[in-house]
Amino acid sequence: EVKDLLLLDVTPLTLSIETLGGVATPMIPRNTTIPTKKTETFSTAADSQTSVEVHVLQGERPMAAQNRTLGKFHLTGIPPAPRGVPQVEVTFDIDANGILNVTAKDNATGKDQKITITSSSGLSKEEVERMTKDADAHAAEDKAQRETIDAKNQLDSMVYQIEKMLKEQGDKISGSERGDVENALSDAKKALESNEKAQMERARETLTQASHKLAEQMYKSAQAQTPPPGGGAGPSGNAGGPATDGNGEAGNKQDEGVIDAEYVDVDKK
Question: Where are the beta strands (DSSP E) in the chain?
Answer without folding.
Answer: 15-19, 23-28, 36-44, 51-58, 68-76, 88-94, 100-106, 112-117, 262-263
